[in-house]
Design a protein that fits this description.
The protein is an alpha/beta fold. The chain is built from 9 helices and 9 strands. α1 packs parallel to α3 and α3 crosses α4. The N and C termini lie far apart (about 45 Å).
Length: about 280
């Protein structure tokens, strides 16, 4: 997709550039956030506006040393067993709504502003553990690749790691035509340029391996929406080849749903063991 920049002189400011510039301004001058407190599974949840979007933070009853936190990148509240276990262990839980941006550079810039805000405002650890459910994997891995110094670990659950797999449906997955159109727009791509696109999470693993970021991924072996062989199987092969630490829990015969595990202990143990080093 050609960005609209008609009738300009000198250097044109495309819609993508405008979004990135706005995100930079937001990072440098975050808006004051009015908070609304409520109960979430027995914990205090703070909802607030940040820029033109909304975020939230759930506080543990007693914070663990160093104020560790897990950052759900999409689908807050869905299958929260691991989140609740980490809250009980003293972690904070955060979410910032950048939906329908598919982990594009604009969304990562906005996330960087949110990260700067919550770490400063609530004294959270500088390195967050990112939790990417489904399309949330695009945000989690691309944030970590862009900001490895701000990332402690990754928990990926049936994650999208290549937009051509989903929503593109260019492999064996179902695809989602409407979402594919939005994803192309978010990245400034066309059907033609997407074929050779090198900005997917699967292409950006070297910074994570260099930083020693541990990854745990839970996937359904029979996932028809986000096929395992087109996403996490490639992640595992490439990350191990780079010397990275990754553990994959593959659920035999399971489709894209249900996410997570009936017993979240393996996920929680992995994150507490590796993310707090």
């Amino acid at each position: 997709m050609r960005s609209a920049a008609i009738g300009c002189r000198g250097e044109c400011v495309t819609p993508m550039k405008k979004l990135l510039l706005a995100a930079v301004v937001l990072t440098a001058h975050p808006a004051a956030a009015e908070t609304k407190s409520s109960d979430w599974h027995g914990y205090e949840k703070l909802d607030f506006a940040f820029g033109e979007r909304t975020g939230l933070l759930v506080k543990p009853k007693q914070a663990a040393p160093g104020n560790p936190w897990i950052w759900r990148t999409e689908f807050f509240g869905h299958k929260p067993e691991a989140d609740l276990a980490l809250l009980a262990a003293g972690w904070h839980l955060a979410y910032y709504k950048v939906s329908n941006m598919f982990g594009s550079p604009g969304s990562i810039a906005l996330m960087a502003g949110f990260h700067e805000h919550v770490t400063r405002e609530y004294s959270l650890a500088k390195r967050a553990t990112l939790e990417g459910f489904s399309r949330g994997g695009l945000y989690a891995v691309n944030f970590a690749a862009t900001h490895p110094d701000k990332t402690a670990a990754l928990y990926l659950d049936a994650p999208v790691l290549d937009i051509r797999s989903w929503p593109g449906g260019k492999g064996k997955g179902n695809g989602a035509p409407g979402e594919w159109k939005r994803a192309l727009e978010s990245y400034g791509l066309t059907e033609e340029t997407a074929a050779d696109f090198k900005g997917n999470p699967l292409d950006r693993l070297a910074p994570l391996a260099k930083a020693g970021i541990p990854i745990i991924s839970v996937c359904g072996e029979a996932d028809k929406t986000v096929p395992y062989l087109e996403n996490t199987a490639i992640l595992k092969q490439r990350y191990e080849a780079l010397g990275g630490r990754i553990e994959v829990i593959l659920k035999p015969g399971v489709d894209h749903h249900p996410h997570s595990l009936a017993d979240s202990k393996p996920i929680v143990d992995f994150l507490i063991r590796h993310a707090l080093k």
